[in-house]
Design a protein that fits this description.
6 strands, alpha/beta, 148 residues, 6 helices, single chain, 43% helix
Length: 148
């Protein structure tokens, strides 16, 4: 799987001005919903929130990977936001989160879902990569790093 298979530059928001986990999920939901006429931001938000209720998706080091299921979905859709300032996200290390990569995965794609999450977790575990992401100031530059 390539990041460019699931993410486009129009689903990236650099320096998003949000002040809470809920607002971050709402922003991501809007970006993801724009990818398909069969999705609404509320549907995406409900899916992401349902997963958050099972256990937080804040990995630590300022990273969160919220993800949800998409009933009748045909492909995985992703969105990414870099926040102006980190928010309380109930992360594993209790640190604020400022980089959030969200996924909406077709309901039947269990293996793909786990593979994508594993690849993202590995990518976001690289300190130099995180430093580069935090330095970038444009949607396009962030897309190029993520899709690189």
């Amino acid at each position: 799987m390539q990041i460019s298979d699931i993410l486009t530059s129009d689903r990236i928001l650099c320096n998003a001005d949000v002040s809470s986990k809920k607002a971050a999920l709402e922003t991501l939901s809007g970006l993801i919903a724009n990818a398909s006429s069969s999705l609404t931001p509320q549907q995406v938000f409900n899916s992401l929130l349902s997963r958050e209720r099972l256990g937080g998706t804040g990995l630590g080091n300022g990273i969160a990977l919220p993800h949800g299921r998409w009933r009748n979905g045909l492909s995985t859709i992703a969105a990414f936001i870099k926040l102006k300032q980190g928010v309380d996200y109930d992360a594993a290390d209790n640190q604020p989160v400022d980089l959030i990569f969200a996924l909406l995965v077709p309901e039947h794609s269990t293996e793909e879902h786990l593979q994508v999450l594993a690849e993202l977790a590995e990518m976001f575990n690289e300190v130099e990569f995180l430093t580069q992401l935090r330095r970038e100031e444009s949607d396009e530059a962030i897309y190029n790093l993520l899709a690189g």
